[in-house]
Amino acid sequence: MVKKFDDLISKVTECSVKTVSVAVAQDEAVLEAVKAAKERNIANAILVGDEDEIRKIASTLNMNIDDYKIIDVKDKTEAALKAVELVHNGEADMYMKGLIDTKTFLKSVLDKEVGLRNNKPLSHVCVFEIEGVDKLLFLTDVAFMTYPTLEDKVSIINNTVEICNACGIENPKVAPLAAVEVVNPKMPVTVEAAELTKMNEEGKITGCIVDGPLSMDLAICPEAAKEKGAEGRKIVGDADVLLFPDIHAGNLVYKALVHTAKVKNGNIITGTKAPVILTSRSDDFETKVNSIALGSVVAESLKNA
Amino acid sequence: MVKKFDDLISKVTECSVKTVSVAVAQDEAVLEAVKAAKERNIANAILVGDEDEIRKIASTLNMNIDDYKIIDVKDKTEAALKAVELVHNGEADMYMKGLIDTKTFLKSVLDKEVGLRNNKPLSHVCVFEIEGVDKLLFLTDVAFMTYPTLEDKVSIINNTVEICNACGIENPKVAPLAAVEVVNPKMPVTVEAAELTKMNEEGKITGCIVDGPLSMDLAICPEAAKEKGAEGRKIVGDADVLLFPDIHAGNLVYKALVHTAKVKNGNIITGTKAPVILTSRSDDFETKVNSIALGSVVAESLKNA
User: Fold this and answer.
1) Among all residues of chain B, which has the CA nearest to that of A258?
2) Is B57 in contact with B35 (CB distance < 8 Å)?
């Protein structure tokens, strides 16, 4: 059972080693993570960007730069297009953001000729290992889709179930979250959560078990779920996927967890032909490495699909 | 400086001992908290409800029932009205929910004759001590107001500033939270957060420092705030009040904290003439005692106002 990031990393090392293509790689924090990913046998890297800058940073990191293919492209937009093309063409398995703004990076992801579009809406998944919670939690969407409609939420669930499967979690339990665990017509979020549950029961959302609306305690805390009465519920504090009402709820929980609980996490953009790693400046080193590991298992799973 | 619940409890014991009036007091968990509050010199209690039941539970808790005034009212609605009237008349200082549904309890709070209406909107404040955060955090509204308008948010801020002051925190820093720390017209929450900030600068919201929109990390983590660039910001990871976009965001963060971080918390309904304690079944023993302590300092502050 995959319950921790170490389990996920064991899973990675059982597969063929994947390659990450980095857009505008002259970024110290990103290169540090790429170096660690290589050393831990999680992934190789192709570095696209300003070669002089890349070499300069690599030397300060004691990084053996001869282990990496470097493609010298000074212009950032061009570097991103070149880096994403490598993934598009199968020369690399996943795509990672370096020293480039998110907007330009995402434009390259969505580029019609060399990008990674898959005719699906893109969504973001953040995978958490939390001390005291006995499984990995897949939070979505805490960073990308702002105000998902019901239809978007179906796409988010489908995208996230693929990530769960790639991580070895079959038929994940999906909790559409709200402040309360009962439908209240004055809270549209709860109505949509019930609708998603019904769609799952009717076979319109497959490969997972949806049960909502659920409050956070009923989703992640078996004791709270049992105390409050779990009768007739399919999720009893054992959710795998936490589906948030909107980006504010998701992002606030995500950052509260990172800054107050004992966690490990990694995150990925999904809905694309290949995994896209879009870590932010504020993500720490281990989060970046974990994200590359997550990208590797997802790339392996897509290869076998 | 009041930075922890222990500081708050020291503050309580410096005041005259307050009395809590309990509606439908035949509730084991509530009586246990009331007993501890008495033993720790935090508050006395008047128990309104089914006297036989109250005595039965008290004996199983080794509670010296002669220390308490009991008023025997079997009917729950009547018991609540009687209990709230005691606060209304000044015979007790705060009002607490026992074995009665929230709706009936709140009806008694809002009763025109014997209730605690104050011509202000009611809101909920949850006070947290979190390991790793160097001050008490006042979360609002995580349980009562569902989708506050801009006007409601002004009331919530005013209500919460009163609670901060009662706890010894003058001129608190209020962070209207969002997924991002910049105004984005596509995210109405961020526009409202900026509007609240402007109202504060123009003197329309007073007694506090408002700075939003803020993401969670910039609100509660000084290191993150400094890293991301805190220039021109009035809050640099040192917020006192976390103002949530809506009940879903607030409640999901609240329960995530309770179930994953090391916390102590207590909560209270405010906007009323006297503090109202509405703990839920899922709140643990210490949370109920902390809520009574919080009620005591707020009652003391209202007395001196």
Assistant:
1) B217
2) no
